[in-house]
Amino acid sequence: MEVSTRVSRAEMQESIHLNRTTKSWAALIFGNLHLMLYSIAFLIGAGVAIGKAVSGHDPDLWRELLILIGILLFLAAIMYFKWSGNPSKTAKRINALNGTVRFESEGLHERLGSGASSFIPWTTVTRWKEGKRVFMVCTGRTFRTIAKAQMSEGDIVYLRAILQANVR
Predict the structure, then answer these.
(1) In what order do the strands lie in the sheet with 134-139?
(2) Do 123 and 56 share a structural domain?
(3) Which domain holds residue 148?
(4) How many Cβ atoms from other residues are within 10 Å of residue 118's Cβ?
(5) Is the domain of 53 the same as that of 14?
(6) How many structural domains is the chain composed of?
(7) Tens-level pLDDT at each residue, the chain (168 residues)
(8) pTM of this prediction?
C-alpha cells in the first residue's frame, strides 16, 4: 500500500498533539523557566500595586497595573507561540518534498519527489498512534504523519493491522 505524505495544517496540528508526552511538558516548563519567573515577579508586582491602589495610597497605580498585566499577557503569548510551533509551515515543508510512503511486511519505504528513498524496518519503529485524521509513526525522536484523507477505508484497516502486528 502506497500513500502520499501530503498533510494539511489540521492534520499536522493533530500529529503534533499526538506526539506530546509528559517529557514534553517538562521541556516546556524548563525551557521557559525564565519567562515563568518573570511572570511570577510581575504577578507579585501587580498584587502590590492592587493593594496600594485599593487602599487609596496611590490611585495612579491602576495605570501601572495595566502595564504589568500587558507585559504578563505578552510573556504568555511568547510561551504559547513557542510551544505550539507553526503547523502550517511544517505542513508546507513536508508537502514540498512531494513524497510517498509504502507500508510492507518488512517496514516502511519512503520516496521523495527528488528520487531519494529510504527504508525503515519495523524494528526501529518505537511507537505509533492513531488520531481522527492521521496515523503517527515514530522512530526515536522523529515522527511521520500519514493522513487518513489519502487512504480508503480498506487501507486504514490494513495499516492499523500492520502497525499492530509489527510495532510493540
Answers:
(1) 127-130, 134-139, 142-147
(2) no
(3) 2-20+87-166
(4) 10
(5) no
(6) 2
(7) 778 777 777 887 787 777 766 666 666 666 667 777 777 777 777 777 777 767 776 666 667 777 777 887 887 777 777 666 666 666 666 656 678 888 888 888 888 878 888 898 988 988 898 989 988 888 877 778 888 988 889 989 988 998 898 887
(8) 0.59
